[in-house]
């Protein structure tokens, strides 16, 4: 059964993914671009409503980096080659303990785990840009080549989308490193061939004795035939697949979303039907969507709930909500204890993950996460509905994981008035007091003219209600804030290659 993990990919890889159980690993990690990336929602008004931070690509030397650095130099559990230990130690002398070394330590830890879970015939693809690619190749050489693997290709993916500078040659390519775990690796060349350009050889098209068209080239008296129906392999610079433009039909609003055709080429070339494909930085889920379409089993991991919720919606939009019956969702709170654990998680790489989970789960992934810089002014999310003669009206969602009191309800009531919202949803991990219930009731009701019914101006919802009673926002919303993925016909037969849900 397919697996989707919400959590730190290093922890998930080490705890749940078995040695030599994966046929193809593809990762598109942060590029060390020193910027933050926002998820773009459908147009719902002003700029600050239309975006929320998707992930952070800024790095610093902190306790997490120090711990990872120590694990490498101490050869934690015998995982690290002498080459990678020497490389990281040497880079520390050159770079110092700063942001770049912190980034390289983080990637190194995860590359080592990807190598461990690959089958001997497996392939690993790392997608990056020129920012740190020269360092990353050293890391990959020290992990793969030092253990009998090979650097198969350095693929340059060229594209024209985006702005162009007049101060330097426009930067219009990414790098995709392809490594194999051994010299005996899978490559389905016929699956990725392109139509042959007959104009490049300046030779006539001939027909053989079987009626098949070909062109020929004669060298040293020997004839070489190039059959048109066989096509030609792409070179190691790919110019036929463009990056997604803002209006692309498949775009979902995720900032670093890659085109389906790019992943189709990689997955077709380096895996077969029924093989297992792993993406440990699965973002908006392009890898898992393509793997699903091509009848591969897949494992996806991401550390942010925004990504997990987007992947779930993407798969449901493409294959209907029954697709979730064929997926193990791991790390998502399923009971009060796991919700408390998420609320108490201290990890400065992610911000307000409990609040994001509560807002997106309660709204069935239809709310917008509020991620303004600085104080959130008591707002964790927004939802919108259509009201007669008034356009779109706003619902404010607020989440609390600590102690709560009637003062919180009064504050939310003030926030509703300040924001010009129609209603507010107060989601609490702890049980509300009777005084809170009374305060909420005194805030009155909102008469929904289109629906012809009334709703409390403030509704109090507990996490227990969400988890155990399946309570969800029951107000019909006018705006789908996430773009919808294209519908797919799913004729695939999913193979249950995992022995249990705890170890894959």
Residue-averaged pLDDT: 87
The biggest beta sheet is recorded as: 9 strands, mixed
Rounded to an integer in angstroms, the radius of gyration calculated over CA atoms is 26 Å
Name of the CATH homologous superfamily of the largest domain = Vaccinia Virus protein VP39
Helix content: 25-40%
Spatial strand arrangement across the major sheet: 11-6-7-5-2-12-13-1-14
**What structural class do helix, strand and pairing data support?**
alpha/beta
Total domain units:
2
State the CATH architecture of the largest domain. 3-Layer(aba) Sandwich
Describe how the helices and strands are arranged:
Layout: E1 2-6, H1 9-16, E2 22-27, E3 35-40, E4 51-57, H2 63-73, H3 82-95, H4 99-117, E5 118-128, H5 133-143, E6 150-158, E7 173-180, E8 206-207, E9 213-219, E10 222-227, E11 237-238, H6 260-270, E12 276-279, H7 286-293, E13 297-302, H8 305-319, E14 327-330, H9 336-343, H10 353-362, E15 368-369, E16 381-387, E17 391-400, H11 406-419, E18 423-428, H12 434-442, E19 445-448, E20 453-456, E21 458-462, H13 463-468
Parallel strand pairs: 1-13, 1-14, 2-5, 2-12, 6-11, 12-13, 17-18, 18-21
Antiparallel strand pairs: 3-4, 5-7, 6-7, 8-9, 9-10, 15-16, 16-17, 19-20
Helix pairs in contact: 1-4, 2-4, 3-4, 3-5, 4-5, 6-7, 11-12
């Amino acid at each position: 059964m397919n697996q989707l993990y919400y959590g730190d990919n290093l922890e998930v890889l080490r705890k749940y993914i078995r040695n030599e159980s994966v046929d193809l690993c593809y990762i598109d990690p942060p590029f060390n671009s020193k910027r933050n990336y926002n998820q773009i929602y459908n147009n719902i008004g002003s700029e600050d409503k239309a975006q929320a931070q998707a992930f952070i690509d800024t790095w610093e030397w902190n306790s997490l980096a120090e711990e990872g650095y120590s694990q490498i130099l101490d050869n934690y559990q015998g995982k690290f080659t002498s080459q990678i230990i020497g490389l990281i130690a040497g880079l520390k002398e050159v770079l110092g303990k700063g942001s770049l070394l912190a980034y390289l330590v983080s990637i190194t830890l995860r590359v080592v785990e990807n190598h461990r879970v690959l089958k001997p015939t497996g392939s690993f693809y790392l997608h990056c840009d020129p920012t740190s690619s020269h360092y990353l190749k050293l890391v990959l050489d020290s992990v793969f080549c030092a253990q009998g693997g090979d650097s198969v290709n350095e693929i340059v993916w060229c594209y024209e989308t985006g702005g162009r500078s007049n101060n330097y040659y426009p930067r219009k390519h990414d790098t995709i490193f392809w490594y194999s775990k051994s010299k005996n690796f899978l490559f389905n060349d016929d699956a990725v061939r392109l139509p042959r350009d007959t104009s490049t050889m300046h030779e006539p098209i001939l027909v053989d004795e079987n009626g098949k068209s070909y062109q020929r080239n004669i060298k040293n008296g020997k004839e070489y035939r190039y059959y048109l129906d066989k096509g030609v392999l792409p070179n190691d610079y790919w110019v036929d697949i463009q990056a997604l433009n803002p209006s692309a039909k498949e775009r979902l609003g995720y900032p670093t979303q890659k085109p389906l055709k790019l992943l189709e080429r990689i997955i077709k070339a380096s895996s077969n039907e029924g093989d297992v494909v792993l993406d440990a930085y699965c973002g908006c889920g392009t890898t898992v969507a393509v793997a699903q379409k091509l009848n591969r089993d897949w494992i996806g991991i991401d550390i942010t709930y925004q990504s997990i919720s987007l992947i779930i919606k993407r798969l449901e939009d493409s294959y209907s909500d029954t697709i979730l019956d064929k997926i193990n969702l791991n790390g998502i709170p399923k009971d009060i204890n796991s919700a408390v654990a998420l609320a108490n998680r201290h990890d400065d790489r992610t911000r307000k993950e409990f609040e994001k989970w509560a807002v997106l789960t309660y709204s069935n992934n239809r709310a917008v996460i509020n991620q303004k810089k600085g104080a959130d002014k008591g707002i964790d999310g927004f939802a919108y509905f259509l009201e007669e003669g008034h356009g779109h009206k706003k619902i404010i969602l607020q989440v609390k994981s600590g102690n709560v009191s009637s003062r919180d309800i009064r504050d939310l009531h003030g926030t509703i008035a300040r924001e010009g919202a129609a209603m507010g949803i107060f989601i609490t991990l702890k049980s509300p007091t009777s005084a809170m219930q009374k305060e909420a009731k005194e805030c009155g009701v909102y008469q929904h003219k289109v629906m012809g019914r009334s709703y409390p101006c403030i509704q109090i919802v507990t996490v227990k209600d969400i988890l155990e009673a399946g309570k969800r926002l029951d107000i019909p919303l006018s705006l789908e804030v996430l773009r919808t993925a294209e519908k797919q016909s799913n004729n695939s037969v999913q193979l249950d290659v995992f022995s249990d849900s705890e170890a894959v």
